Amino acid sequence: MIVLWFSEAPVSSGRVWEDTMKITDLGRLEGPVVLWGGALGNLSALLALRDVTRDEGIAGANILFTGDLAGYCAEGEVCADMVRRLGWRGIAGNIEKQLADGGADCGCGFAAGSVCDTLSVKWWAHTNATLSTASRYWFAGLPDLAVFEHADRRYAVIHGGVTDVSRFLWPVSRQPEFAEEIGAIEAEVGPVDGVVAGHCGFGFQRVVAGRRWINAGVIGMPPNNGVPGGQYVRLDPKGAHIRRLSYDPAPSVAAMRRAGLTQGYDDALTTGRWPSEEILPGEMRRKVMAK
């Protein structure tokens, strides 16, 4: 069953994910749009993005997120509360869904028993224990998919995929994989000119059957390239532009260490390197990414 939502009001229950897809139409957006995702509980990154958008005069209604506001870092509740108060709009990622639904794990799509799966246990426990009821309720009301129009183009916003919210589509994934998701999106909302996604942690663009696939990257973790900072996208009439987000990670690193989150993601904020690359396709591991 598909439910079409034109409001961001919370639903009455957080346990809705198995049976329904919530779709919201954000209408026509004028002026530059900022597309971002994956704060991952990193308040330093989120504050930096807030400052950038304020300095550039981006309207709050034009700042759209692709999910995973909480996660690896220690300040998930603060990040969720801040985004909600700012009035920024977006969709639920797997982390929001799991937190709203009382999930036992992050639902990130990691292989069982993998390093990433093992490392997730502690940060998930911290995130789950520190998130407020108000944030869970807000997460439960977030749509799964959003559409908007900008500069005579129509875009859909998703997390990983429509067929699977935690599907990993990488810069090197095959064209048919993107085409499958575009087909699933268009079956729900009709034709689109572009798709805005998140989840995988890398900002990139692909063109598939005339549609532009734009991954906005994440702000809360570096893209495993040895450089601290995150990524986001600025959308204007000329197209989508992947931007680097620079910030001092020290406060968020300190918060992680106070919380006992020292599995390697704390170091990643300063080294720019993930604690494990096993989830990456072979051609994206360090020998290629370290250019």
TrEMBL record:
InterPro entries: Metallo-depent_PP-like. It comes from the Bacteria. Gene3D superfamilies: 3.60.21.10. This is Calcineurin-like phosphoesterase domain-containing protein.
